[in-house]
Amino acid sequence: MNKTKIEFVCQFCGYRSPKWIGKCPDCDNWNSFVTEEFRKDSRKRFNSTHRDKVISITDIAVENIERITTGLNEFDRVLGGGIVPASLTLIGGEPGVGKSTILTQVSNKISENKRKVLYVTAEESTGQLKLRAERLGALSKDFFLIAENCLDTVFDEIKKFSPELVIVDSIQTVYLEDIPSAPGSVSQVRESAGKIMEFAKKTGITFFIVGHVTKEGNIAGPRVLEHLVDTVIYFEGDKGQNFRILRAVKNRFGSTNEIGIFEMTDSGLRDVSNLSDFFISNRVKNEPGSSMFITIEGSRPIAVEIQALVAQSNFGMPRRMAMGVDNQRLNLLVAVLEKKLDMPLFSYDIYVNVAGGLKITETASDLAIAMAIVSSFRNVPLNGETIFIGEIGLLGEIRSVSNLEARLKEAQNLNFRRAFIPEIRLNKIVLEEIVEIPKLETAIEMCFL
Ligand code: TYD
Ligand code: MG
Fold it and tell me: Is any ligand 1 atom within 6 A of the Cβ of residue 204?
């Protein structure tokens, strides 16, 4: 007899409950429970996948992994130097960010080397995929497509066809026949990914799965799969901007400290190797409200321009708006400027923006943000060949930051002449002038006389 039962499942962590709960006791997310139906008899007993005996770590033989490189340098870099055979990688991102595009490009590059690639398209027709592939110049003979939603059928096809790489686009639109809930539901998504993982390890075939995330990240998808798969990479970027960042958030075969940056062009995604040039190439020099900063993304330094606009406020409540930097941090910096430097910013609206659309999450940008604000407030431009690096404490002191040498090296490569940095008694002088400052006040006095 088929007994069906309704259960409530958390969309984020998969926690199950017999009744609806407002806040998930496991992952603390609010309003995350959705109903799900399952057949009691569809639950199977578990089989152990590991049947090893106890063994000393020194006796374990490890094979050298031979990675498959795609030729898309930024993509290989994020994976830790290429694709590991028999691995399962999840590529998450908002709809339209370019997941299908990059995977079509990757499929093409790999199939050009006489490796069979199967692209399972469960969202688009093969015709639509071909159109995209034509635009990308991805028409290699060993690049095969199938439009199919049922994973059981896909597995049968794979067994007959034995490709080396399989792309499943997307995990939210495929289903397993013996799971009763709809495609896209937590159990369907989790079981499907679990089955793919098992299949990949058994057959040695490499898989990529696509998972959509919305801005709020609140659909059954990537989040519930993160612990299951080998590698998780997220594709970030605004549709309004033409650069995209690929970021590894989990990698069983490499570091998660790497990012890849691509430019979205008419003919697909292209590696951006000179990051700084990309972000500061069209800055306007000698305008008040602009300061230069070197940020660290992954392990790479990138020069960015921080812009601020300080304008007389017409309302009682002045506006504080931060784009690309943290709003709370901006409020804190404004408070320091008001209290420690007696600036009457309470009657001004303040807008801060990172030019180019990059998001900066590190406090090392504090000094550059503060200097851009002061420059706009005084209507005096900062020297365009100076960079500002340093965290600002609540007392107005400049605190040290990580990776200072890498930042200064990048500044040197880009021909900056002067840098304001925290007091760390640097031995190596790489720029023409390095000014070590104890307090924010010192930098302001030196730059605005
Ligand atoms: P797509 O890969 O379909 O997004 P996803 O699979 O993540 O939902 O790509 C979406 C956007 O990329 C689409 O709006 C059009 C744009 N695009 C280009 O600008 N150039 C191109 O060569 C391609 C193929 C897409
Ligand atoms: Mg797509």
Answer: no
Query: 356 and 296: one domain?
Result: yes
DSSP state of 216: T
- Asked whether the beta carbons of 206 and 200 are under 8 A apart, the reply is yes
Q: How far is the CA of 90 from the centre of ligand 2 (A)?
A: 13
Last residue of a domain, one of 245, 271, 297: 271
Residue 200: give the domain boundaries. Answer: 68-271
Residues 135 and 215 in one domain: yes
Token digits for 312? 């007389």
Q: How crowded is residue 285: how many other Cβ atoms within 10 Å of its Cβ?
A: 10
Residue 225 has pLDDT above 80, yes or no: yes
pTM for this model (two decimals): 0.80
101, 236, 238: which to mutate for ligand 1, most atoms within 8 A of CB?
101
pLDDT score of 59:
84
- Most confident range (mean pLDDT) of 2-11, 277-286, 366-375 is 366-375
Counting Cα atoms < 13 Å in the Cβ hemisphere of 149 gives 13
What is the pLDDT, as a whole number, of residue 1?
A: 47
Quick one: pLDDT band at residue 45, thresholds 50, 70, 90?
A: low
Q: Are residues 363 and 265 in the same domain?
A: no
113 Cα to the center of ligand 1, angstroms: 25
Element holding 66 (H helix, E strand): none
Q: What is the pLDDT of residue 215?
A: 64
| 420 within some domain | yes
Beta bridge mates, 296: 301
User: What percent of the chain stands above pLDDT 90?
Assistant: 60
Residue 214 and residue 243 in one domain: yes
Whether residues 95 and 8 share a domain: the answer is no
- Distance CA(275)–CA(258), nearest Å, equals 14
Cα 311–277–362 angle (5° rounding)? 60
CATH number of the domain bearing residue 292: 3.30.230.10
Domain with residue 74: its CATH number is: 3.40.50.300
